[in-house]
Specification:
7 strands, 5-stranded antiparallel sheet, alpha+beta, binds flavin-adenine dinucleotide, 427 residues
Length: 427
């Protein structure tokens, strides 16, 4: 635990140092570029951009370049603004308001460079560099944006999703075998393509002898993500939320203050159970009345816990909901708890109770399960990975399967069609 805390602090320190270096580098780039420009006659007389618009290499859209070059006054103003913005940037970073105004200006400049001059990679690198100056609240707001339209729930329960997939497959002549745990690839019938909906640990269990040692090592080192203890409630009525607006929300994050959220998540990251854990609760009845008989309701919730936890958090989760909905406890008709360890017994992909198919940092979302040019293609010919352990990661969007299917169709069957075109009713 002490080691985990030391590791967390070292990682935070390295992260902050890296951000500082990138920020400093951006200031040097802008400052140096502006000083160089200020000494050049074409920038001094405002014609630099006019010339660039006439160089073949930078005319990605000739008609657009010609029409921009038709406005020499605007072009001259942009040239001057560019020099002033770049000169000012290293100083503006110390002023909050000016910094954001210049960042917006520079963002516009980079986007224009990408489109007009046809050098998007350069622009993307500069925009990513600029983004280190954005405040934490911006990134937090981005995360919050994902919640503004709510999270969908399947009418009739999540089983409806599995039923729809099974129906589609059967209608195309496919057969489904359930209740059988596959323990080795050798058990499977011969096929041109095999798509494995498994975790890195699952892939190792099925085929480690056929995989190269480097890939095996990388799979073993793949981080696990977040583990949960799930609690389902049958209720005699809707949850009596203290804040009335909560009664209209499908998904609620029950954690209290920011400090409480940090403390709870830190405890779990350090391998401890939080006293008041981060609880995510869903009341599907808000949009789907089929979930419970008239007048009754359901609520499901999960709490973040350490990996492999065997603890029954039924009481802890009930108390956390009760905190925000006094009287909730009296409505509970039945409670069903699935501790993290039991989640794995139910679904081998949920290793240790993890439900995200692997780490969820920006890096691990893109590079999952291991850094590889094509993460869906395993080193075994004709065997593909299609689970949430591949990009773009967890949730029931199905895109991991779409990408894996595209590879299998192309490489094993020579078909280059987008797999979604084969689906009869794409949502
Ligand atoms: C409690 C909980 C709440 C969630 N809430 C949401 C939510 O609100 N919204 C959302 O979008 N996502 C949610 N998720 C995440 C979502 O369910 C997963 O990201 C998604 O199902 C992953 O899809 P998958 O195809 O990779 O794996 P899975 O859906 O897990 O399917 C893999 C299947 O393969 C089977 N399998 C694995 N190994 C073997 C083997 N060796 N032999 C035979 N069968 C095997 C498993 O039993 C399982 O049936 C939640 C997950 C959990 C656990």
């Amino acid at each position: 635990m002490v080691l985990a805390e030391v590791r967390r602090r070292v990682v935070t320190l390295m992260h902050n140092a890296a951000i500082l270096v990138i920020g400093f580098q951006m200031c040097v780039i802008y400052g140096a570029a502006a000083l160089w420009k200020a000494q050049g006659p074409v920038w001094e007389n405002g014609t630099a951009l006019y010339y660039i618009l006439h160089i073949d290499w930078f005319r990605a859209w000739p008609a657009l370049s010609d029409s921009a070059a038709d406005h020499p006054t605007i072009i001259a103003v942009i040239a001057y603004v560019t020099v002033f913005a770049q000169i000012g940037f290293p100083f503006a970073v110390f002023s909050k308001r000016l910094k954001y105004a210049l960042l917006v200006l520079l963002l516009g400049m980079h986007l224009s460079i990408a489109v007009l001059l046809g050098i998007p990679v350069f622009s993307a690198v500069m925009i990513i560099g600029d983004s280190v100056f954005l405040p934490d609240t911006f990134w937090l707001a981005l995360g919050t944006l994902a919640h503004t339209v709510g999270w969908p729930v399947a009418r009739g329960g999540s089983q409806a999703i599995a039923d729809a997939l099974a129906k589609e497959l059967r209608e195309r002549g496919g057969t489904i075998v359930t209740g059988h745990r596959v323990r080795s690839l050798a058990e499977l019938p011969r096929a041109r393509a095999i798509l494995l909906d498994v975790s890195p640990a699952g892939l190792l269990a099925l085929a480690s002898a056929d995989l190269p040692p480097g890939y095996v090592r990388a799979l073993r080192a793949a981080p696990s993500g977040v583990a949960v203890c799930k609690v389902d409630f049958a209720l005699s009525g809707p949850v009596p939320w203290a804040a009335p607006d909560c009664a209209r929300a499908g998904t609620l994050h029950l954690v209290g203050t920011r400090e409480e959220a940090i403390a709870a998540e830190r405890a779990v990251a350090a391998g401890r159970h939080a006293e008041r854990p981060y609880v995510l609760a869903v009341q599907p009845g808000v949009v789907d009345p089929t979930r419970a008989p008239q007048g009754r309701d359901t609520l499901y919730a999960y709490a973040h816990v350490p990996f492999g936890s065997e603890l029954d958090l039924g009481e802890v989760v009930t108390a956390q909901v009760e905190r925000f909905a006094p009287g909730f406890r009296d409505l509970v008709l039945a409670r069903h708890v699935v501790p993290a360890r039991a989640l794995e017994e139910h679904n081998p992909n949920c290793v240790g109770g993890g439900f995200t198919g692997g780490g969820l940092s920006l890096w691990h979302t893109a590079m999952r399960p291991v850094p590889r040019r094509d993460p869906y293609v395993t080193p075994i010919e004709g065997v593909y990975l299609c689970s949430a352990s591949t990009p773009p990661g967890p949730a029931v969007h199905g895109m991991c399967g779409v990408h894996a299917a595209a590879r299998a169709l192309r490489q094993c069957f020579g078909i280059r069609t987008d797999p979604l075109r084969f689906v009869s009713n794409p949502v």
